What does this fold into?
Amino acid sequence: MNTYYEHTLPPNLKPKISSKISTIKKFIKNKYVLNLWTSEGAQNPVEAVQNGEYRKDMGKSTKREKREMKESRKKGRKRGGKRKKSEEQSDLINCDKKEQC
It folds into this structure.
């Protein structure tokens, strides 16, 4: 699905996990509601599912892309060592931490 929703997204525009909540909320709205970075002429995957036209291979990565992702994950672990336990994050959709909404 990201290949559809992030087709023309500039790489530096995607928020990081450390970004402000308001920045992440704005990004999500721009991506899924306003469809700012979708490719023209491509079929919306949500509509494809609703119309029964979804193919299992839609949006699948190629073997090369999978291999590159796997290699980049391995490199990331070598640099950082063990993974850190993630901090509890607020639910952006339901906003479970009221002070951040």
